[in-house]
């Protein structure tokens, strides 16, 4: 089966815009005063989307040759165009997306790009547009190399990545409730609302792209509790609608922390520890506490717990 995913997504653009318009009208009518949409927030999301798309166009020019190298020299088989090969590619890429997404919440270098998507304190269809132009720098593309080794052509890899991301537009909404049995298999708005929340009960859960089976299999699934509404945004809130600040604020913080901490272990933590390490470090500095040194046993319980989560990889994560 062959198709042009970029043309497909371009054709879907009116659908995406129509969904945003419908949701804004519906939520204003059904939840007046909630202010679930904001012009400044939506325009920021749109600017971030345009910046992301431009960066992606340029990045693929450099990345496709890398996939071609692995495809030409290291592929273990060759998949002919068919529905069967599409299903295998779809499932394999969705699993790799889960790995990428979970790593992006546990490794600060990756989080520096992914944080852009989570930094709005609103949750609506326009939030799906809120992406970072820094994903190529962070290394998102590295996670798709196994697909080339499995024998999928580079352009097909790009297509399935775009399709996966296109699907995820539809889970960024508060206008749709739970969807029954579908939530045992697919990512849904209810499942993804949990992922965007910063409540202790919800934070760092539900990493699904399209299939939620990976969260259920690897122990990262949490159901939305109707008695506890999600609180959206990030732990260290970003109070700006400037798309450039939204894009680079965590990179600037990462660089500043790397320069200020002492000891090579802490410098590596500033780059690659879970984001909770940085939040703990910033809280210490704000309180005037001593900076944790390499090998120090003075880390807070939250930082220790974050490091334990990081080393546990895909074991069952901590329960709130």
TrEMBL record:
Membrane topology annotation: Multi-pass membrane protein
GO molecular function: glyceryl-ether monooxygenase activity; iron ion binding
The Fatty acid hydroxylase domain, residue ranges: 86-220
Main location per the UniProt record: membrane
Transmembrane segments: 6-25, 82-100
Keywords recorded for this protein, A-Z: Lipid metabolism, Membrane, Oxidoreductase, Transmembrane, Transmembrane helix
Cellular location(s): Endomembrane system
PANTHER family reported for this sequence: ALKYLGLYCEROL MONOOXYGENASE, STEROL DESATURASE-RELATED PROTEIN
This protein's name: C-5 sterol desaturase
Originating species: Paraburkholderia aromaticivorans
């Amino acid at each position: 089966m062959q198709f042009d995913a970029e043309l497909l997504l371009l054709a879907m653009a009116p659908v995406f815009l129509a969904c945003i318009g419908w949701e804004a009208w519906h939520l204003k009518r059904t939840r007046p005063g909630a202010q679930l949409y904001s012009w400044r927030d939506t325009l920021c999301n749109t600017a971030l989307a345009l910046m992301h798309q431009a960066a992606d166009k340029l990045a693929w020019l450099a990345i496709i040759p890398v996939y071609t190298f692995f495809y030409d020299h290291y592929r273990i088989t060759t998949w002919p165009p068919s529905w069967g090969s599409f299903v295998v590619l779809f499932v394999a890429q969705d699993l790799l997306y889960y790995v990428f997404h979970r790593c992006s919440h546990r490794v600060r270098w990756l989080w520096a790009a992914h944080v852009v998507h989570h930094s709005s304190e609103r949750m609506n269809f326009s939030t799906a547009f809120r992406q970072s132009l820094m994903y190529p720098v962070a290394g998102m593309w590295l996670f798709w190399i196994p697909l080339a080794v499995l024998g999928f052509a580079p352009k097909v890899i790009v297509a399935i990545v775009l399709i996966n991301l296109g699907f995820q537009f539809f889970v960024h909404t508060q206008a749709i409730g739970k969807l029954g049995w579908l939530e045992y298999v697919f990512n849904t708005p209810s499942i993804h609302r949990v992922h965007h929340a910063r409540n202790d009960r919800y934070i760092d859960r539900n990493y699904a792209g399209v299939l939620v089976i990976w969260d259920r299999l690897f122990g990262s699934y949490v159901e939305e509790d109707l008695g506890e509404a999600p609180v959206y945004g990030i732990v260290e809130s970003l109070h700006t609608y400037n798309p450039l600040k939204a894009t680079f604020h965590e990179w600037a913080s990462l660089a500043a922390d790397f320069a200020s901490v002492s000891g090579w272990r802490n410098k590596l933590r500033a780059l690659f520890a879970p984001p909770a390490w940085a939040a703990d470090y910033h809280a210490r500095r704000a309180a005037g506490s001593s900076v944790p040194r390499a090998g120090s046993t003075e880390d807070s319980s939250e930082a220790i717990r974050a490091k334990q989560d990081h080393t546990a990889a895909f074991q069952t994560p901590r329960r709130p």
